Give the backbone structure.
Amino acid sequence: MSHVKAGGTSKNTRDSQGQRLGVKLFGGQAVKTGQVIVRQVGMTKRAGVGTTLSRNFTIHAAKDGIIKMTSRKFRTHSGKSVRRTEVTVE
């Protein structure tokens, strides 16, 4: 016979590491070509002039310059108008 009572199994032991998303460089800061400006899931921020959008929605600088972030209205696929931050490099 067992000397110890049966212990239950734990189900919540798995955990994944954070993805380190977010804004890496802010408006008014200097940026060099290829530097990451924003890491994001989906297009919460839009890529404007002087920036490129990669396959995982990361916004990179396409040229050297100063970052400018402005709020603009964009149309969604359903026709709804929503405010999004547009990231540009000047």
Summary: Residues 22-89 form a domain with the OB fold (Dihydrolipoamide Acetyltransferase, E2P) fold (CATH 2.40.50.100). The chain has one domain: 22-89. Residues 15 and 40 are 20 Å apart (CA to CA).
